[in-house]
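User: quick one, fold this
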Amino acid sequence: MLKNKVYSSINVLGLALGMAVAMLIGFWMYDELTFDHYHTNHKSIAQVMITQTFNDKTGTGQSMAIPLGMKLRNEYGSDFKYVTLCSWNFGFVVGTGGDKKLAKSGMWVQPEFPTMMGLEKLSGNLKALTDPSSILIDHSLAVALFGDDAAVGKTVRINNKFDFKVAGVYKDIPRNSSFNDTHFLMSWDKYLTTEDWLKRSETQWDNHSFQIFLQMNDNVDMAKTSAKIELITQKYVKKEEGNEHLLLHPMDKWRLYSDFENGKIKGGRIQYVWLFGIIGVFVLLLACINFMNLSTARSEKRAKEVGIRKAIGSVRKQLIFQFLSESILMAGLALVIAIVLVLISLPLFNQIADKQMLIPWVSGLFWLIVILFTAFTGIVSGSYPAFYLSGFNAVKVLKGTFRVGRFSALPRKILVVLQFTISVTLIIGTIIVFKQIQYAKNRPVGYSREGLIAIDMNTPDLFGHYDAIRNDLIATGVVDNMAESSSPTTSVYSNQIGYEWDGKEPGTNPLFGTIAVTRDFGKTISWHLHQGRDFSRDFASDTSAMILNQSAVELIGFKDPIGKIIRKDKKTYTVVGVIDNMVMQSPYTPVQPTIFFVDYNWANIITIKMKPSAHLQEALVKIGGVFKKYNPASPFDYHFTDEEYAKKFSDEERIGKLASVFAILAIFISSLGLFGLASFVAEQRTKEIGVRKVLGASVLNLWGMLSKDFVKLVVISCALATPISWYFLDGWLQGYKYHTGISMWIFLVACMGALVITLLTVSAQAIKAAIANPVKSLRSE
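Assistant:
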């Protein structure tokens, strides 16, 4: 190692980088594969899902009716240990009755929920939710509200409306859990008393507004039970309201298998887990290839050593052991460097991947895996050199007649082609991932996100003051307009059936996104009118008016929608306008048919449009002052609409960033190997270069001679990487209904980049050899 510092450094650094990447990806994969494993009963817990078919369109969701939960509990007790109804994870204002107010999310749950989920008790009684006045909070919220004082027995005020007594404190739920954002749990019985519609929903089979979680009894097969309950809602649901099928979705599949097609699990994040697993293996393989190439390239240097060892009695088995032990020792040294690299990069990696991963220093399993992983890397990287070098003929080596043969470089060339095929494929993949993200970002959204902020109306103080709040906000001089709605512009909270119109096909009952708004909503968000007019204060009749998006018009089949009548729940609405489709849900899917109507009582989201000339911080202070006036007991909690919309791309952007980092490391490791091979070739051909220079060869001639072989290999790699990457990435893009195309320029850019990197890497050694003084290289002759 000391004698050949350059080659040793390349080998160790390359192996270290490859091992560091493999370790980071291994941590990420483990975190994904063990998602929700914090819950001790994760293998027997499931969520009830429902598949509904409307107009031959099938969708699977989590929204359930309360009577279903009661039926499962009462009639299938032999299958289920626990059945619990829950609300969604809502945002609330949490306080202690004084000035301290926090915006936190929590759930209304039935009493069995904490036990079923295996929450870890820190103090109090986690089974206390049988008392409607009790609340359970996590440790972080307890500290935030009460400091170091004991929280149990203290009073907590929710939304400046409900008072609860803290009955227990549970350990914070970790990041890799579906309930990570659940900071407190409230009594389900109390929930049913908060609104009249909730009490009525106890008998409504068509009100799908809740979640149902359950735990299987011991030795009960979840798949068989899922088949048993599949059709139990059929007799309670009218045929025209949709064909419903139930299924149990195991907790162990919530994270990785969340996509459904025709009521069956299609896949999900698991594709990314396997993708990065493959990338980790390939990046490590690139480092191992460097070791193999440099070891075999320098075989002539060690041929005499092998010959002498064989002459004094060494058998091939001993030589193989020697070379493998060398490579394992190198891998061990690389491991130390890799762990240091992982320590340095893990905080940044966690930030990019949105994780909280740590190196498990005290885990015996971790160290066993590391030792086996290091030995495996050493054996893989040293296997080819060991069997190749140990096979040299001792007599020929010592007589000086040994020649490596004209095809001895072929395995090295094949390995270099493999290296750059992998690297170029990763580069192409990274470009296409970012192109897909940009394509979706550039999709017309149908409204203006600039300067919009949204505020949840969590407390009763904000209701009933619409005009007063709006006038005060506009009077600040920093607000252009304000409106209320039942959903923010970045989501659709309510979906309904039961709409009727003339010419509707009998026996069908399509599902529409349904959003209640105030008259100023369209002007506030600057939606794009396609036909007709907007809601207006000048028309008192707009309380019976509707505006449809284009997707809804297409579904209904109206050729001239303005003035058409739509009926719902014995009320008649007139279509006054049609807007361009607004992207309110996933930017990668077709826009849902959506209906907007005026209703000031249903709205619970305030949307504010700030003036373009307003200074952001100054504007927020003034807006916050208005909300303090009307809602003094709650913090001013707001969301920027453009930031909420950007979150829709978070998964793809994280994948893209991670892929780009690994692609850069892959090309760097490949370039390291190329640098080592180029320096070896230049060293091997030193005398040839000297003779050529004496005979008149220019530096350019010599540079071309030394570079062309490597360029040929990279060109072959590009030719292989192009169809491989197109095949797999085209399949990936087809998973998105709204996706970009694969352009030829992507392949050209990736291949040209690889060629430029190759020339820069090789040129350093080629030019150094070409400008060397030929006298020095020839005088030994």
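User: anything notable?
Assistant: The chain has a mean pLDDT of 87.
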